[in-house]
Design brief:
alpha+beta, Arc Repressor Mutant, subunit A, two-stranded antiparallel ribbon, 6 helices, HTH_HxlR, Helix-turn-helix transcriptional regulator, WH_DNA-bd_sf, WH-like_DNA-bd_sf, transcription regulation
């Protein structure tokens, strides 16, 4: 399955992959559906129950995620006559985003974390490492380079 591609220049405002990504997964029900499928819940009714999403909205979001190539429908192992929702490579690539939202929510939003990431026998603490040089990368070590023609970090370069 091919993932839907969006030209960042076709989104309103600043040409940006964040804005283009949010057109596909920037909805509460979309991200919560991805969370549930990540947890191994592939049936529509499981996803609906565990997200609390209205079924009509969830149905639309799942259809959009399938259309965008984030999820696919395929037969369930225990019931081959019925299909479930599964993440594609593009969908599995969002697991890091979900982990960061969990970490951020635990730190800044919730009063008591309801889940915990574990790595073997200890709490999981992610660390950014540059795949090119292998060096640990802190927030201050990374710079943003604007590559969109006619734009700077401040906005459009021409009024």
């Amino acid at each position: 399955m091919t993932t839907q591609r969006i030209d960042p220049g076709e989104v309103p405002g600043r040409p940006c992959s964040i804005a283009a990504s949010l057109q596909v997964v920037g909805d509460r029900w979309a991200l919560l559906a991805i969370r549930e499928v990540t947890f191994g819940n592939h049936r529509f009714r499981q996803i609906a129950k565990n997200t609390g999403a209205p079924t009509d909205r969830l149905s639309a979001r799942l259809k959009g995620l399938v259309s965008a190539g984030v999820m696919e429908r395929r037969p369930l192992p225990d019931e081959p006559r019925h299909e479930g929702y599964y993440l594609t490579d593009a969908g599995r690539d969002l697991v890091g985003v979900l982990r960061e939202l969990l970490r951020w929510g635990d730190r800044w939003i919730t009063t008591s974390p309801s889940m915990r990431l574990r790595h073997h026998d200890h709490e999981f603490t992610p660390r950014a490492v540059c795949a090119h040089c292998g060096e640990a990368a802190d927030r201050d070590d990374v710079e943003l380079e604007v590559t969109a023609d006619g734009w700077t970090l401040e906005g459009p370069s021409t009024p």
